[in-house]
Amino acid sequence: MFKRMFSCVLLVSLCLAMLSGCGKREYSQSSDITGDAPAAKASVKNAGENDGGDSHKNKNDDDSNANDTTDMAEIVVVIPSMGAIPTGLKAVEDEVNKITEAEINAHVTLMMIESGSYDRQIGLMMSSNETADLLMTMPSGASSYTNMQAQGQLSEISDLLDTYGADIKELLGDFVRGTTISGKLYGVTGYRNLACSEYIVMRTDVLEDLGLLEKARNMTSLAEYEEILQAVKSSEKWSYLAGLVSTNPGECMAQESDYIGAGTFSDMTCYDTLGDRNRMISIDPYSSDPVVRLNYETEEYRRMYEIMRDWYEKGYVYKDAATTTDMGQTLVKSDAAFSFFSNSELGIESAKSAACGMDMTCVKILDQPITTGSCTKFVWSVPSTAREPEAAMTFLNLMYTDERICNLLAWGIEDVDYEVVDGVAKYIEGNETPAYHTNDFIYGNQFLILPWEGMDKDIREQSLAATRNCKLSAYLGFSCDTSSVTNELSAIINVISQYRPQVETGMADEAVYSEFLDKLKATGAEKIVACYQTQLDAWMEEK
Fold first, then answer.
1. Strand 37-46 relative to strand 25-34, pairing
2. Which of 150, 151, 261, 278 could form a disulfide with 482 if both were Cys (CB 3.0 to 4.6 A apart)?
3. Which of 43, 73, 74, 49 is nearest to 61 (CA)?
4. CB burial readout 25-39, b (16+ within 10 A) else e
5. For residue 522, how many other CB atoms are within 10 A of its CB?
């Protein structure tokens, strides 16, 4: 299903080896294809250090040293956990290292941080210069791709990708443009289904008990959804549940690049953030008039706020939605919530059912185009604190091309955390809460990960086709260099962190919402919008 170009790194490595006697840690990479799925192999060795420069050679030139642990690269890989950190993490790490130590001579330490604490922990790691060789950036906040790049926290990886990540570059193709800033790369998007839609995710058992399952599946408007929220709230049996909770901390309705405040689903629209993970930038992805707007003061955003405020006052929204660090699916799993909005893709019903620990009904309300923001949502980057950037990129290349690594990181250890039946992964009977189980959308190459029980057996093929056939924003590939507004961005991030959770969960009254807009402008929001507009105009002219 996948095709890939054989890397020429071996030839480059041999040439370099002839030109220099010895050097720093060495990397030689070869690749092969097993069946339809790519698989990469690499060797990492240390030949000592002196002023002679770097030396590169094929691992077969010296098999006796190929697994010399004294020369082994030690890399720290930081991963966001979308729920509680699995207790089986160390066991999975050990299995990963059986592969990496043998094939790329690198020992990997997996560091998982719960998503609600990710911004703070990543910030502390960067400020204290704590070792992190590879990390995943988050969709928004201080740990987002654009914010970390603007703060100088990410390494420029163009050369690293060419040398040690050629397979990644081949797989991603044009999507590499989505994380390119002023001609430079600071990370690569996950190779996953980029064709996303917005959904309302609801507990099936509650809907069935209230006789509302058919109504929910056939909803065409927010008014009908509100009727369901009211039925849950007024139900004697289910009134203890919060009707609507935040999908991610502080985000109820307003997510990603959707304007879903219109009455009917068919009238809802999208916007392109032009890669801004603060969701402060807004532009019509299909418009012939490329005007950049401050998202939070648009009429479309205000309508969403007004709906959330109304629902909050009616008691439909979780009272701690603005402050909780728990994700929506976590609150559902703990029997505290009925529903949440979610930006997701094909296979969402089985994925959310597995994450929530119960059957979930998912109703699509809006399709989205692929934008630069789609590509900067989850980005693998080499942070500026990396001590082994070459080994980090070599491991990342393996993550994108080796199905063993992908499945270990997603589902855990086969026949321990899950079993495979007819090509589909599932819980082992009697072990429905294994020590390790995460997700399938951030670990390099989603298309190499086994589908989970409940998904179509050919979901990966369907998803790949959906990604290839999805509408593209007119501005895909544009990224703004925000280095000239770094100070303003730092101030803006603080303002957004303070006010947006209140606004987007309905907790903020009109006065607080107005104060939010005033503070955005006082801290330089309009200067940032102008920065995007100027660079977009130049990009459009050049294009």
1. antiparallel
2. 150
3. 43
4. bbbbbbbeeeeebbb
5. 11
DSSP secondary structure string for all residues of 216-262: HHT--BHHHHHHHHHHHHH-TTTTTSEEE--SBTTBSS--TTEE--S
Q: Which amino acid is at 222?
A: L
Closest alpha carbon to 143 in 168, 113, 181, 184: 113
pLDDT in tens, 167-185: 999 999 989 988 998 889 9
Q: Residues 91-116: pLDDT tens digits?
A: 999 999 999 999 999 999 999 999 88
Place of tokens 């691992």: 59
Contacts of 388 (CB under 8 A, 6+ apart): 25, 73, 74, 75, 106, 133
pLDDT, tens digit (0-9, with 9 covering 90-100), for 33-74:
223 433 333 334 333 333 333 333 343 444 444 445 568 999
* 106 φ/ψ angles, rounded to the nearest 5 degrees: -135, 140
The burial of 108, by beta-carbon neighbours within 10 Å (0-12 exposed, 13-18 middle, 19 or more buried), is given as: buried
Per residue in 329-385, pLDDT (tens digit) is 999 999 999 999 998 888 889 889 988 999 999 999 999 999 888 898 899 999 999
Contacts 24+ apart (CB under 8 A), 178-183: 178/275, 178/371, 178/372, 178/374, 178/375, 178/376, 178/476, 178/477, 178/479, 179/145, 179/375, 179/376, 179/379, 179/479, 180/477, 180/479, 181/149, 181/479, 181/480, 181/481, 182/479, 182/481
The DSSP 8-state label assigned to residue 508 in this structure reads S
pLDDT digits (tens, 9 = 90+) for 532-542: 999 999 999 98
